[in-house]
Structures are given as C-alpha cells and as structure tokens.
Design a protein that fits this description.
CATH superfamily: Nucleic acid-binding proteins
Distance between the termini: 19 Å
Number of domains: 1
Largest sheet: 5 strands, mixed, barrel
Helix content: under 10%
CATH topology: OB fold (Dihydrolipoamide Acetyltransferase, E2P)
Length: about 90
Amino acid sequence: MAEFKYEGNRRTLTGVVISDKADKTIVVRVETLVKHPLLKKYIRRRKKFMAHDPANDCHTGDKVQIVESKPLSRRKRWHLVQILEKAV
C-alpha cells in the first residue's frame, strides 16, 4: 500500500468500505453516535465518503482509516491512510 503523507491537523475518520467497484476509489460508511437533544437518546448517524485508494488494496467489508485531503474529483476529498481490519 502506498504511504500517504499529510501535514497539519486534518480530520481522520474510521469506517467500513461498502463499495470498491470504481477504479482507485472506495466508498466508506462512517457511523457516529449523536445524543438527541429532547429525548436524551443516542441515535446512530451514517454518512458515506468517497476516498482515494491508489493501489486498489481495499475490498468491501474492510475497516479503514481515511484522512481529509485536497479535492481529487467532484465528490472525492478523502484519502486512504491504512486498512485496520481485512474482511473475512
């Protein structure tokens, strides 16, 4: 896997790859827990991010870490940092 160098404070997110069909691109679903202001109950929020995977290492189901980067295309603004867990 090619090492991605970045400097400064950039957001990093951890999520699961839900699609790897595009060339050098993965779609990562990130889940966060948010407390409802009135009900005081935790709600699971999901959001999809497109990330750059230059070596096509990731596959569906892998747990990955992504980091903010400069815009690479219209929707792709994240870069793969590392694969935390491979899918079984």
